[in-house]
Structures are given as C-alpha cells and as structure tokens.
Amino acid sequence: MVAERYDVVIAGGGPAGTATGITLAQRGYRVALFEREHFPRFHIGESLLPGLWDLWNSLGVTERLDSMGFPLKQGVNFCLPNVDYDIAFRTDEYPEYFPRPYAFHVDRARFDQTLLNHARHLGVDVHEGWSVEEVHFEDGRASGFTVKADDGSTHRVAASAVVDATGRNCLLARRLSWRKPDPVLNKLAYFTHFRGAHRPLTPEGNVMTDIHAIPGGWIWYIPLPGDVVSVGTVLDTELVRQSGIKGVEERFRQGIATSPRITQWIEGSEQIEPMHTISNISYLNDSFVGDGFVLVGDAACFVDPIFSAGVTLAMRGGIFAAEALDDGLKRGDVSAESLRVYERRIRKPMERIFALIYSWYEILKRQDANNIFVRSRRIPILREKLVVLLSGGYDKADLRSFLADGAESGAHPR
Question: Does the global pTM surpass 0.90?
C-alpha cells in the first residue's frame, strides 16, 4: 500500500536510486522508491572497481556482497594498437589506496536486487513494477509523482523532495531539455553473454577485465559468475554507418572477427542472451539539480563503459545527493541553490573520468604506440596514478597531473 506523503520519493531502483534511498533511510527519513521493472532483471555494467568498498561499507552492504560468490577482479588487461604485448594494471599494485585491493565481476541482476532488498530492509518503501507517470511541480518546485502500479491503478504521492534515478530514460532531463549527447563519444555498443567460453585467470585463480582495441573501437571481455562471460563491442557510429551492415548481430560479429584472440576465446560457446544495443553512449545533462529535485546516476550522466566507472559514479552520486538532501531538509531549503553542493561534488570525479576516456579514444584514433599506458611501464609515478584512477580513486588522482608525468622520459620515485 502506497502512502500519500513521504520526505523523499525516488524514481528508479538501480545502484544510484538505492544508494540514495539507503543513505536517507539510515538518517531517519521516510522514503519511497518506485521501480518500473520487477527484479531481478538483466543490466549491463558488470565490472566493478575497488573505489566502491568505502561506499559499500557506508551503506552496510559489504557483508551481503561478500557472501554472493562473485569472481574476484584483480585489475584490467589492455591489448593496445601497435603494441605487441598486453599491458596489465593490477589493483593490488598500490593496496594502500583502498580498503581492499580487488573488486568483483558481478551478475548485475543479483547485485542490483541485493541493493534493492537492503533498501527495503532499512525501511525504504519499495514498489517494484510501478512506473512514474508524471513528476508534479508546485510553484516551480518538484513536489511528488503520479505512479502507476502493475495492476493498472494510479496513485499520487507527495514529497518534500524528488530523486530521478531513472537511468538512461532521463525522466526529468528529457522533460527539461537538459540531456546533451557528447559529440566526441558518439559510439554504439553491442553486447551479450556467452556460456562455455574461455576464462583467462590470474595466477591466483581470479579474473581481470580484458580490453582489446580493434579497428574503429574496442572489445570488453568480462568473466562472470559460473561459466558465463560478458562480451561487448564499442564502435564509432560513423564507421558503423559507412559499413552498411544493418543487423546488430552482424555488427557485433564483425567487430569480434577483427580480434583473433577474442574470436578464439568464444569459439564453441553458447550465446545465452539476446544481442543488446546502446546508441549515443555518452551524455552529460546541463544540470543535475533543480528546485526540489536531484538527478542521480545515469539520469544525470552516462559514461562510456571503457573504464567501468558507471556503478562507482552512480553509487557515489547517490550518497552525495542524499547528504545534500539531508542538509537541505533539515534547514527547510531544498532549492536548486541548496542542492548544488551535490552537483559540484559529483562533477569533479565525472570530469576526471571523462578526461581519461577522451585520452583513450585519442590513443585509438592516432594508433599511438607510445601512449600513457605504455609509458607507465617505465615511469612509476605515472603508473601509480593510472592504477588508482582505473581502480575508481577519482578523488585521489587526476588526468592532468599524470599526463604531465607521462610526458617525462625518465622514471620518478614514488
């Protein structure tokens, strides 16, 4: 039974929405969360980062995640253009930066459901199969939702503040014309799951994310729980258009065929998911806050998947948003100006990861064999900063400084 009024209402039950709801519930607020799907459900974004441990600890979900049997991820391995060896960055090279020097490869259906169940356990009024039909405004301030239940009934709920965590649907950003695709990152992604494919392992028997550069893009290869791997190709939109290939399966297979190693790894395996597609991958909204509302996770910004930053940014943003809402609600001021502190906090790590992403695509464009990844093999300070960034430590290192270090020819002490 849905109540008529809450302190905060949230649209969307992914990592950003649940992180916001959990943090607010921990602080004693009455929160409702409306998720249009029934969990568990398929979702992309399976490769996680050590930068999440602090967030999971604060949300109280670490013990639950530890018990789920997800493969331990020890870093990322790059196969780069014009470089005849792989370059691996292990997250345990600099263990002092994070509570644990590893992360997980997760089945997002189970991972997201665990977060949603934890929010429910803490008192968030969770409604699965309920869609937000309309966001209400009173005197220019967001004041609640009209929601539609899975039985077809509609309900109006009021709140002191509203959270849009609707992912790429961008409920409020589209309504307000804030959503702006990134013209530099105009890419298409095609991805699916395979059972029975090769599972490359570290000497410890754990896994890494494999990134393989190919003409016009790159491939991810992510071993998941059980005997499943996630495989995706990210390709330049204009090159796909020029190829004349229409079907998504054919586009995916064409990308895979340009990598002999990935082709060999999936040979004889069984595709167990339909082919999924994401177009115009990256966008960044003009603003993340308004009077009475905040946008969190993919509803605020969608990051190119190359460095697996999405879940880290989503959960960090959810916590930052909840902290700003907590302060605003206590002061009786949830104006855009009051909530802007959240936007300032989350844009800083976003800017750092976007800078790294732009650098990646410049490497692919130039086919640069003397890139920052290669140079990090001989410049310790560059390698340290790169490992920290690739591990989700966006508050601990930035691109400008390590690019400056990367321009140096000699080694630097740590």
Answer: yes
